[in-house]
Amino acid sequence: MKRLSLLLVLVTILSVVAACAPAEPEVITETEIVEQTVVVEGETVVQTEVVEKVVTPTPEPQDPVVVLQGAEIISMDPYFTQSLPDDSVQKHVFQMLTRFNKDVELEPYVAESWEMVDELTWEFKLKEGYTFHNGEVVDAHAFAFSLNRGNELLEAGEGDVTYQYTLMNMDYAEAVDDYTLRVVTNEPNPIMPIHMAHTQTAAVPPGYLSEHTQQEFQQAGIGSGPYKVVENVPDERVVIEAWEDYKDGPPAIKTIIWRAAPEAATRINELKAGNADIIANVPPDLALSVDKASGVHMAPVDGLRRMFIGMHQERHPALQQTEVRQAINYAFDCEGMMQSLLAGAGQCSGNLINRPFSNPEIEPYPYDPERAAELLDEAGWVMGADGIREKDGEKLSLEMDCPNGRYIKDSEMCQVFGSDLEEVGIDVNVNILDWSVFIGKALNRGEGFADLHLIGSGPGFSPRSDLGYIEAETGSNRSRYANDEITAIFDQLKTTYEMDKRVELTQEIEMLAHEDAAVVQIYFQVDFYAASDRLDWEPRPDERILLLDASLR
Amino acid sequence: MAYLVRRVLQTVIVVFGVSVFAFGLMFLTGDPAEVRLGAGADLMTADEIQEYREKMGYDRPWYVQYLDFLGGAVQGDFGDSIRYHEPAFEVVRRRFPATAQLAVVSLLISVALGVPIGVISATHPNTWLDYLTTFIALVGQSVPSFWLGIMLMLIFGVWLRWLPISGRGGWQNLLMPSFTLAAFSLARNMRLTRSSLLEVIQQDYVRTARAKGLSEYRVLFGHALRNAMLPIVTMIGLQLGFLMAGSVITESIFAWPGVGRLIIEAIYNKDFPLIQAGVTMLAIAFTMVNLIVDLLYAYIDPRVRYD
């Protein structure tokens, strides 16, 4: 009985193993009757032969590539959203006159060339041959319609174009001929080609929009890019497919599914389970677990979002002294913070301008608490008995507003920063705030901000706009910093149109701001992506996920 | 009839109070005009912002704005969502079925498992079975839902690959989120069933039924459980409202496109019309469920008086 049971167990195990063994690939054959005419003994004879041939199997359809972002796609109308996840999808579906390549360098897209014909007018020459997914032609008329639509939305207070179209300050756009577009501005705008890379200047189909509502267009997302929208389930997913009729040839990845998962743990689990191919915003402390998993890998990239600490000029009087601001920079151990919070993934920087326009001569302030103490003494802030510096009876106690969960390790950064300053006698009380509360304080040029605040600023894609934070009287200047020397150079910029000269002037501003310690520049945020090994894809530094050049291994 | 009228009036007052609160949120978080303009406000002059403020009506007295809001709200018009650029009511309505589906399935699970386990526990007091079920209840009420959800995801989604991890789809997509949401309610139903049934089992009429020679099955299900179910029915009815309103964590973990997550994101983005629409509609759903439960309870149990 025992032997019989053992035999049964063995048979069962063998059966299971056999079932689990990888199957031999199926060989598909088909028979074919081949006729051959031959001459036999002077007579022409037709011989037939039955031949068995191995048939090449039809390739399996390519599995869709799944991209998992942190928020759902809100709209497929680029003029009605500023959301980054939306922008990533829209850059596959829509075309602009120009675009930024993976090295964040401006290059032609639908426009093949451009020039500034006078102070207020830019002329773009367009390539021929592009069409919308519904067959309409992409020409200067379509672009004029699209850009004027943006202006109309701005005037009507509709859409989500306030920021972009206020920045462009465009009067109107017109088609000189079918493939020559002129854009007329209200004031000289030397960086119009850079603005034309923004998705909110994309070509949208005039014919479709004249016959359909904006809601219908928002759902359909008809563009002229290498991908077209095939499915749009609001709040769930957007599916795009490579467009076979794209003028420059369809991209390698056939189908991309865009989904969202707010929780980082969910995104990571989806990637590990093989349900996602690219995920965004991986917390750095979970990067190791992703790298250890089979079939997936981390894909970090030095981003363009600068993290810095603003020092409000209308709060504590100490912050109005250059020596104190410099001391704060010296007191802060940036490298130590990168190691402890980001496992060394961040790169400390003293630059305010994004590469490639940043001033190469600027080095970040070194960690030097002795030098910080000297500067504070020079400024008259002497160490008190309680370990807090004071001057004329006033304590050097600062309040710091800090967002929570908006940026990588933001609240932790504030606490580390605060403790560094306390080492040199500056008392810092950190207020950790939910982003919705924090951003309310940022309104009206930082009216609600305390003495210090941690904030990030995304890429402006032009050196001029990267400096908005320190330009006096602008809305972005949330610490209300002002420097007469810098203001004079900003005035000079308004009438300087050559790009090389503009870069020179902005680098000069950047150096002055650095020497004056306008802010405490920390680092350019590292963006942590993760991807499946089956995908040949490189992340971009501008927080957009693009698969136009990607392929499956 | 008097009771019905009184309860309906109470419901209306509660919803009215919630609408005032939802409307007032707009003023607690900064200038509505600048919030609505977002980053664009940085590029505009003070005069331009004032012009926008007047255009949107934000310069009117708060009570005028509230009456305007109330007049629209009773017609389902909360204005357009700042983020979605479509009527806020439509955005919320579109998400409601997902939340309702999750809440109802969670409720069914919590009842289908919680009540029988509670019965088993009550009929086997102070046995290993009783201790085990009590332990399960303790765990169910102690374990945070976000931890439970992620553990289920890891086991069934990543290791075993039996179930999809996130998103809405077929019944397979519903299993993990509904179990996560049901865990606390399941444990509570189990404990309530156990204690209610234990109390009823001690009653004289149950002893009499046994003395008459009725089978234990008949005693339990024909007499004891029927009387023990009254508080359980009340709790179950109330749970539906709580499940709908409290599903935000589960919806976030499993990327379930429901109303709870929508409202949290709306708060994050300061999308006032969407917050107002979502909070008001959830309040209406919650109070309506409570009203129905209260009316049912009064109908089921004639002994109940609400003087």
Structure description:
- The complex is a heterodimer of chains A (553) and B (307).
- With 553 residues, chain A is α+β, with helices and mostly antiparallel strands.
- Chain A has 17 helices and 24 strands.
- In chain A, helix 16 (484-493) runs antiparallel to helix 17.
- The longest helix of chain A has 19 residues, at 2-20.
- Chain A is globular and about 120 Å long.
- The model of chain B has no long low-confidence stretch (mean pLDDT 84).
- The radius of gyration of chain B is 24 Å and the shape is elongated.
- Chain B has 13 helices and no strands.
- Chain B has 2 domains: 2-75, no CATH class; 94-300, MetI-like fold.
- Chain B is 77% helix and 0% strand.
Give short descriptive properties of this protein.
heterodimer; A: 553 residues; alpha+beta; 11-stranded mixed sheet; 4-stranded antiparallel sheet; B: 307 residues; mainly alpha; MetI-like fold; 2 domains; 13 helices; 77% helix; 0% strand; elongated
Count of separate structural domains of chain B: 2
For the CA atoms, what is the radius of gyration of chain A? 30 Å
Low-confidence stretches of chain B: none
The helix count of chain A comes to 17
Determine the strand fraction of chain A and express it as a percent band.
Answer: 25-35%
Protein chains sharing the most extensive interface: A-B, 49 and 45 residues
SS content category of chain A: alpha+beta
Largest sheet descriptor of chain A = 11 strands, mixed
SS-based class of chain B: mainly alpha
Shape of chain A: globular
Gist of the model:
Chain A is of the alpha+beta class and 553 residues long. Chain A contains 17 helices and 24 strands.
Write the layout of secondary structure elements.
The complex is a heterodimer of chains A (553) and B (307).
Chain A: H1 2-20, E1 29-40, E2 43-54, E3 65-69, H2 84-93, E4 98-100, E5 106-108, E6 111-118, E7 121-126, H3 140-156, H4 162-168, E8 170-177, E9 180-185, H5 192-195, H6 206-211, H7 214-220, E10 227-233, E11 237-242, E12 255-260, H8 264-272, E13 278-279, H9 287-292, E14 296-311, H10 322-331, H11 334-342, E15 347-348, H12 369-378, E16 382-383, E17 389-391, E18 394-395, E19 397-404, H13 410-423, E20 427-434, H14 435-446, E21 452-457, H15 463-466, H16 484-493, H17 499-515, E22 519-532, E23 535-536, E24 551-552
Parallel strand pairs in A: 3-12, 3-13, 19-20, 19-21
Antiparallel strand pairs in A: 1-2, 4-5, 6-7, 7-9, 8-9, 10-11, 11-12, 13-22, 14-21, 14-22, 15-22, 16-17, 17-18, 23-24
Helix pairs in contact in A: 10-12, 16-17
Chain B: H1 2-28, H2 32-37, H3 46-56, H4 62-73, H5 88-123, H6 128-142, H7 145-159, H8 171-201, H9 204-211, H10 216-245, H11 248-253, H12 259-268, H13 272-300
Helix pairs in contact in B: 1-13, 5-6, 5-8, 5-10, 5-13, 6-8, 7-8, 8-10, 10-13, 12-13
